[in-house]
Design brief:
Helices cover 48% and strands 14% of the residues. By secondary structure, it is α/β, with parallel strands linked by helices. A six-stranded mixed beta sheet has the order 7-6-8-12-15-16, with helices on both faces. The chain has a five-stranded mixed beta sheet with strand order 3-2-1-4-5, sandwiched between helices. Strands 9-10-11 form a three-stranded antiparallel beta sheet. Mean pLDDT is 81; it is low at 5-21, 338-342, 417-428 and 489-504.
């Protein structure tokens, strides 16, 4: 046979083998990714480990990403084995320990291969994108090694790599060669490096000079990014901000400049989050800082921004500003435990010198505190954001236009009223509320027909509720049963506020029951998701006369509740409940609240006076 022909045949066969191997690798990689995201980490690890049997597998496309996915699969599978190990007997414990060692050996092998790839490419890399990719990849797996082995050698290597990244990559992250995800990954590396080395000044400068201005332009105001992507990046941004919040600890001796800057960043983060979730009233307040808020305070007012600092422990801090402040004052409020969400710490703060003497205490709670009543003192004003102090005040109209959804037939054609006093949230077939009838009779008595539009009986439908969108309304009154599915909300923990991969929403887990709910649970209710998509910017006040309308969840620094859905839709003032309320009590509070408004009092004073007649005033909150 001709020697040249033989060489050509061998070359052709080699190319075919490489191509088939490449296709096989991509298939295995895709399967591994699928196993990883579905939670089958063992199969993902095995699929990738099988590739290492080929001599030339390091030349395969995307092999660096495949190997890193293998490392992540090993990490997660090892955690699963640890959980099993904790509940096994001695023999089972030894078997699992052996499996864990085997997984670690595979993980180290992946890292060794990846180390070869990264070093090889970093030596020849000339552009920022390539340098960022391989350097950030190396930082990630060396950090895993450092944490797992507690070896000082790997700890020093991780620090050295981060310093190299800060010197070579950080100044060029925004040059346009990297996409948004890559830029954010870079900032995440830098911020965590500063945090691990207790360099709070470096972290603050990075956040102020690089991350915050870039995030505002490239994420919040970006016309090209989809909403789910923006919300995901917002959660990551808040995680980086938390690193600065943790620097407020006394052991770090934060300076006045540090405290002032972190307060500004927390205010801006809340406003950016509201805008990304669809609330347009904050679009002109994305640059607000504590000095802007200070200028709008009267001599008798004080503003308090509360923030979480989550680390090995969780704490709540208060930034306090009044008209005479040269800089914000920082107060420690205590631990944020579930058994009260630090309400007691904040209640104590209200009584301290320098705060208790003020006529108006404006405060913006942490996300966790948003579902808890922090006290009903007349001076307290509960705000979503301190920027609302800068907004035009919504005046209470003593002759209001009221839209009321009340006295609802949850079974169409049913006009019966349950005689017993009941909670405003039914777990069986939903029953009519006696208090709702009393409220309607009161409204018909004190409000002229031209100023009152009622949706009652069979007419309080979902379509009727949606029809109020874009209407000018002084008071929207809803007297019904509300629901909040806590267990379902926990299962949906990975979904976004308004959209997700499945097209569902955490806000679908709460809503208001309307006409025909017992006949058709979907058509007979309006979910918080649907409410959040209405345009209610012309509605001054919403009264949610139902159970648990202010109760919900916090995911990634975002609030998920029925009250928050109305806020997203554009409503400033919202009266909500933090737990189950008695029908009779809620009806009395509503009637007294409306009565005070009709006498010319503002919403805040009317709310405080109405609680004086309540048997459980701690269950009601007014967002202003």
């Amino acid at each position: 046979m001709n020697i040249q022909l033989l060489k050509n045949c061998i070359l052709f066969a080699t190319i075919i083998c490489l191509r088939s191997l490449s296709v096989s690798a991509q298939i295995n990689a895709e399967k591994a990714y699928a196993y990883y995201y579905s939670g089958d980490y063992k199969m993902g690890m095995q699929k990738i480990y099988n590739l290492t049997d080929y001599d030339n597998f390091l030349d395969l496309p995307r092999i660096d990403e495949i190997l890193y996915c293998g490392i992540l699969c090993c990490e997660e599978y090892s955690k699963e084995l640890q959980l099993q190990r904790d509940i096994r007997d001695e023999n089972g414990w030894r078997n699992i320990t052996a499996q864990q060692q085997n997984v670690w050996n595979i993980e180290v092998e992946f890292m060794e291969y990846l180390d070869v790839i990264c070093d090889k490419n970093l030596k020849i890399a000339k552009d920022i994108k390539t340098k960022h990719h391989y350097l950030s990849l190396k930082i990630r797996y060396v950090s895993i090694l450092s944490s797992a082995t507690e070896d000082k050698k790997f700890e020093r290597e991780a620090k050295s790599l981060c310093n190299q990244y800060i010197k070579e990559i950080l100044p060029n992250l925004q040059n346009g060669s990297l996409d948004v995800g890559e830029v954010f990954e870079g900032y995440n590396i830098v911020m965590r490096h500063y945090a691990e080395n207790n360099d709070i000044k470096g972290a603050l400068n990075c956040m102020k000079d690089y991350i915050e201005p870039w995030f505002l332009i490239s994420v919040v105001r970006s016309p090209s990014l989809d909403k789910p992507v923006k919300l995901t990046l917002m959660r990551q941004y808040k995680a980086l901000l938390n690193l600065l919040n943790y620097g407020l600890e006394a052991e770090f001796s934060p300076s006045h400049d540090y405290i002032s800057s972190v307060m500004d960043l927390n205010i801006k983060a809340k406003n950016m989050s509201f805008v990304l979730n669809g609330n347009r009233m904050y679009e002109s307040h994305l640059g607000d800082g504590w000095r802007d808020i200070q200028k709008s305070l009267s001599e008798s007012s004080v503003a308090i921004e509360l923030c979480n600092a989550k680390g090995t422990d969780e704490h709540i801090f208060a930034f306090i500003v009044d008209r005479k402040s040269k800089y914000p004052r920082l107060e420690y409020c205590g631990h944020s435990y579930w058994s009260g969400r630090d309400v007691f710490g904040f209640s104590h703060l209200q009584t301290r010198d320098g705060i208790k003497e003020y006529k108006n205490i404006y405060y913006s709670p942490t996300e966790e505190m948003a579902f808890v009543n922090a006290g009903q003192h007349r001076s307290l004003h509960r705000l979503h954001s301190l920027s609302e102090i800068l907004m035009d005040e919504v005046s209470a109209n003593s002759s209001p236009l009221i839209f009321s959804f009340s006295d609802i037939n949850f079974t169409l054609g049913d006009s019966t009223i349950n005689d017993r006093d009941m909670h405003k949230g039914a777990e069986r077939d939903t029953e009519k509320l006696r208090g709702a009838k009393n409220e309607l009779n009161y409204l018909r008595k004190v409000i002229t027909s031209s100023k009152l539009r009622i949706f009652e009986s069979d007419n309080a439908t979902k379509d009727a509720f949606k029809s109020i969108s874009d209407h000018q309304i002084d008071i929207l009154h809803v007297s019904s049963h509300a629901y909040y599915n806590k267990d379902k909300s926990r299962r949906d923990s990975n979904t976004d506020l308004l959209s997700s991969i499945e097209g569902t929403s955490i806000l679908d887990n709460c809503g208001i029951k309307l006409s025909g709910y017992n006949d058709d649970n979907e058509l007979g209710c309006i979910t918080a998701t649907e409410i959040s998509r209405l345009n209610l910017t012309k509605v001054n006040l919403v009264i949610l006369d139902a159970c648990e309308t202010g109760t919900g969840d916090v995911r990634g620094g975002d609030l998920y509740s029925l009250a928050e859905a109305f806020h997203t839709a554009g409503v400033r003032y919202i009266l909500a409940t933090t737990s189950r309320v008695e029908d009779r009590d809620a009806s009395n509070v509503l009637i007294e609240f409306i009565n005070e408004i009709l006498q010319g009092n503002n919403y805040h004073d009317s709310f405080c006076k109405s609680l004086a007649i309540s048997i459980s005033p701690d269950k009601y909150v007014l967002w202003e």
